């Protein structure tokens, strides 16, 4: 028994190490002087520590200072792309969470013909790889003239995703019917029961799914790459890729890229630090692993 527990903790420790180490190495590279990146490659802490990579990514140093610090001369308007990512993520999270909550409540509580078939269609949609819908969505957005706009960016996922509907439906099914029936006796309609009873009682799962959708939207790369090439709609993940492409192939600007990547991860880490415990509790409640 004790040997089994030791083995389990060992495997868990290795899994944590494998998961966390790439993030640690990203931060370490961002804090290393670019001139000594490859010569200072065998220590866990950078021997040539510097903040210069963060300064040039944030636009706090001139071109001459950036090149003197080992930069390739590539520029990155970090604050503009950060704003684009925040707008894109906030719109997707707010609209998608609300519309999915309405759909999930209807599938959990309302009685109408075809309800089970409709829910089966949502479950089947969970198994469709997103890459299969990429080209049809791109053709539709292009024909609508929405390329390089925020409307085109959010269009495919704005209203709902099958996972969000499935997740919230599982919770709505667990709500005590007596509370909703008492509201109906007091004269509340379906809409009032949803707004005044079901939603307030679902605050925890709603925050959880909002965090999950927010992380997904924040790190999304392929769809924004296809649709949001213009600077006014370019999000941070795409901008970091463009930043790397601007540096010479023979000498990529790894330290600048890692500094930008580190800064881009901070909002997501803050979200997980604030809502991490609630997220784990809700996932355990729904039985999703």
From the structure above, extract its key features.
MetI-like fold; MetI-like_sf; transmembrane helix; 289 residues; mainly alpha; transmembrane; transport
How would you describe the overall organization of this protein?
This protein is mostly helical. Helix content is 70%, strand content 0%. It is globular, with a radius of gyration of 23 Å. The model has no long low-confidence stretch (mean pLDDT 86). Residues 82-275 form the ABC transmembrane type-1 domain. Keywords: Cell membrane, Membrane, Transmembrane, Transmembrane helix, Transport. Belongs to the binding-protein-dependent transport system permease family.
What about the largest sheet?
none
Structural class category: mainly alpha
Radius of gyration from the alpha-carbon trace, in angstroms: 23 Å
What is the second-level CATH architecture of the largest domain? Orthogonal Bundle
Give the amount of beta strand, in percent: under 5%
Overall average pLDDT: 86
CATH topology of the largest domain: MetI-like fold
Kindly provide the name of the CATH class of the largest domain.
Mainly Alpha
Cα shape: globular
Overall number of structural domains:
2
In total, the number of strands is 0
Order of helices and strands: HHHHHHHHHHHHHH
Helical coverage, percent range: over 70%
Which spans have pLDDT < 50 for at least 5 consecutive residues?
A: none
Separation of termini? 25 Å
Instruction: Determine the number of helices (DSSP H or I, runs of at least 4 residues).
Output: 14
CATH superfamily of the largest domain: MetI-like
């Amino acid at each position: 028994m004790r040997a089994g527990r030791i083995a389990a903790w060992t495997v868990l420790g290795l899994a944590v190490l494998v998961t966390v180490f790439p993030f640690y190495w990203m931060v370490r590279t961002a804090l290393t002087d670019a001139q000594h990146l490859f010569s200072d490659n065998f220590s866990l802490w950078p021997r040539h520590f510097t903040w210069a990579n963060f300064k040039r990514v944030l636009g706090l140093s001139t071109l001459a200072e950036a090149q003197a610090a080992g930069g390739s001369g590539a520029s990155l308007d970090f604050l503009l792309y950060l704003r684009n990512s925040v707008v894109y993520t906030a719109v997707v999270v707010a609209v998608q969470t609300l519309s999915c909550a309405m759909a999930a409540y209807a599938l959990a509580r309302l009685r109408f013909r075809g309800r089970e078939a409709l829910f089966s269609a949502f479950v089947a949609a969970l198994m469709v790889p997103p890459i299969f819908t990429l080209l049809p969505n791109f053709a539709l957005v292009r024909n609508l003239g929405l390329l390089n706009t925020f409307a085109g960016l959010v269009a495919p996922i704005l209203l709902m995703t099958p996972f969000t509907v499935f997740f919230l439906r599982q919770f709505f099914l667990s709500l005590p019917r007596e509370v909703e029936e008492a509201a109906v006796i007091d004269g509340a309609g379906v809409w009032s029961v949803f707004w005044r009873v079901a939603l307030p009682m679902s605050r925890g799962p709603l925050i959880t799914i909002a965090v999950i959708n927010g992380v997904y939207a924040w790190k999304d790369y392929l769809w924004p790459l296809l649709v949001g090439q213009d600077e006014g709609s370019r999000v941070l993940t795409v901008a970091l890729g463009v930043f790397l492409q601007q540096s010479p192939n023979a000498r990529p600007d790894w330290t600048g890229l890692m500094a930008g990547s580190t800064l881009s991860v901070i909002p997501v880490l803050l979200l997980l630090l604030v809502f991490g415990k609630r997220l784990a509790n809700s996932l355990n409640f729904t039985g999703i692993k």
